[in-house]
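Tutorial handout. Part one gives the primary structure; part two gives the three-dimensional structure as tokens.
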Amino acid sequence: MRVETRIAWVALVVAASCCPCHADEGSASRESLFEDQPALKLDADWKGFAQMEIARTVGEPVHWSKARMVLELNRQGSLGENVKWKIGGRLDYDGVYERSSYYPQPVRQDQRAEFQLRENYLDLAAGEVDLRLGRQHVVWGEMVGLFFADVVSAKDMREFLLPEFEVLRIPQWAARAEYFKNDWHAEALWIPLPSFDNLGKPGADFFPPQLPGPGGTLIRGEAKPNRSLGNSNYGLRLSTLQSGWDVSGFYYHSLDATATFYRDIVAGPAPTFAYRPRHDTIDQAGATLAKDLDWAVLKGEAVFTDGRKFGVTRLTQPDGLVASRTLDYALGLDFTPAPDTRFNVQFFQRVFADHDPDMLSDRQESGASLLLEGKLTPSLEGRLLLISSLNRRDYLFRPRLVWNLGQNWRLMGGADIFHGPPLALFGRYEQQDRLWTELRLSF
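Part two.
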């Protein structure tokens, strides 16, 4: 754990233990966040969940891929009328990486046990501006199954996109100011210590594969930018509700949370491709919209990105990369065909403004998703999710069942099925098909 993480955690725990405070649940609006309340109150109970997760990979070779125990705790309170706080952390332990010799040692060490700081922040009311200082989630958009306008969040990609988004997102150390006026909401964000996607280690089930060289592939250590104010992320967002249309626009300048793999060619009778993950500086402008159409709910997100690079097969290309501006967008409709039933359909696309013929992607990469979920019995729920490319036969299919055992207990089971070409979005994990189950106690 880094020094600044330890200091922040200790400081916030001390503040929590010393102050008899209590927290409100909601923080969606200024009014609910800072409503009048007695000073110095403390929530008497820690909240969170304990969870057991087991997965069996059925692609070749068959192996146990997860036997994880998770404990997440958080606590909220206030230091007065205009100051609130939250602290939280999560502890993971996976027995597969303790006992099995299937994975390389760096993978076993990386995924055996881990403590993560979750949200740890102070909320301050300063006149007409609300301030949130500390480690926090900043969610600017959310579609089904994939990320588009949610550009601020870093992600734990060691299980690809399979965990629930609330678990997959990594909080950022940030200062965020929000201003509310009638139907308008303005937001300014500064991230002095950016978090980046956690890719795991080479040899893990979901470490992203790269184009192999004639003599094989070598993955070098990730190059992360120095901790300096010059490497800060910052952004602005403005949203409004007009005639039932919930719309927003944003600009975000950042070190890309997603790593780009730079290629070197190691000379030899059969050259080896050596890759090093790096984080480039990018600029993003985007928008979101949502509208209740009575018969369905319409949602859309779009993001234009400048500064990102993409791999090409051309051996003479320096670093194996070319820069291209991209437009990513998604449109979705949510239906309620029957009580306690939801049907969602989405269309999404990435357009390369500067497409290179040696890219692994087409100039326009299109896809669609279908989601159907609902109650089968009062205590049993079913869910089917299919996400597929429309350019090629490349998809992810995820059926699952949820059994609500009691007020706080939940048992889930399902499958994750991948299919597609070896370097496609889903096909690269075709050998990672798995069956899984999860038991959660929430408190």
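Part three, for discussion. The first helix runs from residue 3 to 18. The two ends are 27 Å apart (CA to CA).
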